[in-house]
Known about the structure:
Blueprint: H1 42-56, H2 69-90, H3 98-113, H4 120-132, H5 137-151, H6 158-168, H7 170-180, H8 185-205, H9 207-210, H10 220-225, H11 230-234, H12 240-260, H13 262-265, H14 271-292, H15 307-320
Helix pairs in contact: 1-2, 1-4, 2-3, 2-4, 2-5, 2-7, 3-4, 3-5, 5-6, 5-7, 6-8, 7-8, 8-12, 8-14, 12-14, 14-15
Amino acid sequence: MSAHAYACPEQDRGAHACVSGAGGTAPWTRGPVLGPAPRMDLAAARRYCAAVATGHYENFPVFLGLFSRTQQDALAAVYAFARTADDFADEPVFAGRREALLDAWEDALRRCFAGEASHPVFVALRASAHELALEPQPFLELLSAFRQDARVGRYETFDDVLDYCRRSADPVGRLVLRILGIDDPQRRAWSDRICTALQLTNFWQDLSVDIPHDRLYLPLEDLDRFGVPLRDVLARRPTRAVESLLHLQVERTKEMFREGRPLVTRAGWPAGPYLAAVWLGGRTVLAMTSAAGTRVLHERPALGPRTGAAWAWALARRTLGAGT
């Protein structure tokens, strides 16, 4: 459910990048997309990471040409790391062994930052970490969130949801800032707002997907506030109270996008166009989710080649020019 921050919003979800350990030394299983992950030299490992990233984020390559090769390689390695770990926490094929896989992935991460790597994701990440002085902490925070996904299906308060977002989304944004050479306290603060907003947007967009899997990010305190019985949400009943509950979440998320928007205009070149596309894509999905109302309980709004472009154009005219 995470790993979406600063990737252009995808059109569809699926199983991705479930990989096999080098030489049988780690408990990765053969995956439905890319198959086993053999030992690789650095160039091959970086191609592998690019394939993982582009295999899920359809628009991932769109703005990469703006960045240096070093930056492109690092972004692909970060997304490949997060995508694979997210699959361990979320994909049905890994049920019953999620914790073991995430523990092994963390062990491989720690060995990577100690200078030892065999899996292609960590071969690529080790090189990028050395080139750009990346630290392990953001990656460890991501793994903390992925473990939470494997254990927690309900959130009592909105603060609890935000705490999850601080570990599931914000670290990716901070890594992107570092990679693009624009990392400073103010930009980190703006980035955190955008990344949290992107993660929240994904939650509301995915209600029809998550509820049948008994996962709910709507705060239980808000259900109480609007008099919504949990059974109504789980049964996906489109009541007026549920509509009001969803409206609150959308408005909260919209405000976070607004608070993070200065990053788009103050990121400079070439980060600015990339971040503008991400911001606009997220706000477009949120607008589509808002317009769907309680239909999001049964159908997932998604950006398509035509509808997404139309929504984005309308939103850009209405919000970017107005600074909202």
